[in-house]
Amino acid sequence: MDGLVEIPYYIIYFNTGLISYSHIQQFYSFYNNLPNKYYQNLKNIYIVNPSILVKSYNMFKQQTVSKEKILYLKSLKRLIKLDFMNQSLINKISKYVKDYNNYNDPIKTSQNHDKSENMEKKILFGKSLEDLELDQELMIPVIVVHLFSYFENNAQFIQEQGIFRKCATESGIKLVEKELIDKNYEYLNRVEDPHIVASCIKRFFIQLPEPIFPFKQYEKIKKFSVIQDQYEFKKKLQEIIEEIPILNYNVLKNIQIVFVAFVQFIFKTFNLRISLQFCKLSINF
């Protein structure tokens, strides 16, 4: 919770019936015992699928809870449409629901947990940014650092014909993924075919649950892209960039530096954009 002190945050309470209602007292006890500093950055408490019983609960009349911050959402669809929601959060909510449904079946829950852990260990591409180990200096996924360092340390590969356009062998990509899962980052230094690493970079972005530049921010940019005044356009753009999750922003900032280097060496901006347009970056270089 300490990480929430300095940033705005939300609390979401899912009401799923009488059983869920019985837990409200526990939720209130937890919330009411928090230090005052945690209330300052609380934006809203969302109650999803509220019943009459939930709405009438006394906790929502207490000053500590700040009644004006409580919003009722009739369905999960309305929650998903909120500005701060993204695909990663939606996926996590789905997982929470599944875990809750299996709560009364310990054997099934244990089997599913073991199966899920084994699956997670076997894949790297396809995970959300939040689920990846971060480099403590750059605050971006470690694998992004090593994949892009491959080209930074081997400048000659930047000039390889068809780089980021030609596809590598599936076996080569899978082998690199396996070594990265095992944290054998030195293996990249022995990869002689730059197309394999370039394909890994593309696959990493393609298989992200949500683009580095989130859909919602991208849609907002499209709406005011017709603005002629450059000052007004930059101002609007800056506002949207500030809405990007900090982890996404850090990755976006670091990868653009590398891609600019590619442009300076051999690509025209337009050609680079064609090579990477399917990587779900949703930005124009």
UniProtKB/TrEMBL annotation:
Pfam families reported for this sequence: CRAL_TRIO_2, RhoGAP
Gene Ontology molecular functions: GTPase activator activity
Domain of life: Eukaryota
GO cellular component, one term: cytoplasm
Domain Rho-GAP: 127-285
SMART domains xrefs: RhoGAP
InterPro entries membership: CRAL-TRIO_dom, CRAL-TRIO_dom_sf, Rho_GTPase_activation_prot, RhoGAP_dom
Protein name per Swiss-Prot or TrEMBL: Rho gtpase activating protein 1, putative
Record organism: Ichthyophthirius multifiliis
